[in-house]
Amino acid sequence: MIKKLLVCALALPLTMCVAEGTETDNPLVEFDGSECKSGQALTLPSDVMRTAAVRTLEAGLYDGLHCIAWERLGGGALQIDVLNYSAGCHIEWEAGDIALEGDQLTLTARNAACAQAGCGNCIYDFAFEVGGVDDSRPLELTFQEDTCHDIELAAELTLPIDEKSSGIVCRQARFYDGLNLLCGTAHTPPCTDMDGPFTCAEGRCSDASLTCVEGPAGAHRDVCLQTCEVDEDCSLEVDSCQDGLCRLRETF
Predict the structure, then answer these.
(1) Which of 71, 94, 131, 250 has CB 3.0 to 4.6 Å from 79, enough for a Cys bridge?
(2) What's the pLDDT tens digit per position in 91-101?
(3) pLDDT tens digit string along 38-53?
(4) Spatial distance between the Cα atoms of 133 and 139, rounded to a whole number of angstroms
(5) Chain-centre distance of CA 24, in angstroms?
(6) Domains of the chain, residue spans
(7) Among 158, 143, 130, 157, CA closest to 73
(8) CB 92 within 8 A of CB 113
């Protein structure tokens, strides 16, 4: 078996690992992981993102959402971006086990230094480029985190790469204190549901065009959703108009 050497260079604000050589049981071509996003950085995808679906996002568009985007690059190469992944603070990420077996792809982000912090959570972005993918059929994707102590399943979903050359699918993000900056905007909690120095009327969102509703399982808080009459009223392609509110059309 030909071994593949991962050459990693640490250059703030991201860690980049490029795979040199080829190996049939390791499809990884390149991995990038961001630092913890905080402050105004919460409103933008980090520089590591590669897919057009994420790279060209307007500031604040996908606040409060955890998303996975894909883009076919040709010749069996596939770019997969993971946006707004919630994990511990101050982690330096590297690529963990990456495996492609038929139409099943497993991607792992590894906590390289086994960092543990008591500050709560941060959100991060990851970019994986893999090769050897058969894009004539759907791809079963498993994304997981290697905490050094355990492997934690983060997401399982089917990417319709045979039907769409690129796309994005999202779910409601888990919320934590660092998201105070975003309270009361679409897909985030109303300010009164967040810890911090924010003042809003009880149970109301900051924007009058938004409505406070019970959040889905995993969100752990109520969320503010955009009102609508038709799908075209919703500003995100991942939303559709459901019972007068812009809700995620599909989740994972």
Answers:
(1) 71
(2) 899 999 999 99
(3) 777 777 889 999 999 9
(4) 8
(5) 27
(6) 5-172, 177-248
(7) 130
(8) yes
Tokens coding 213: 């509703």
Task: Tell me the one-letter amino acid at 86.
Answer: S
- Residue length of the chain: 252
With bands split at pLDDT 50, 70 and 90, how would you rate the model's confidence at 5? very low
Tokens of 51: 């897919």
Output the CA angle 184-90-152, nearest 5 degrees. Answer: 85
pLDDT on residue 7? 39
Residue 186 carries which side chain, given as an amino acid letter?
A
Tokens for 16, please give them: 């980049």
> Is the CB of residue 38 less than 8 Å from the CB of residue 46?
no
Say if CB 69 and CB 166 are below 8 A apart. yes
Higher pLDDT, 14 or 118: 118
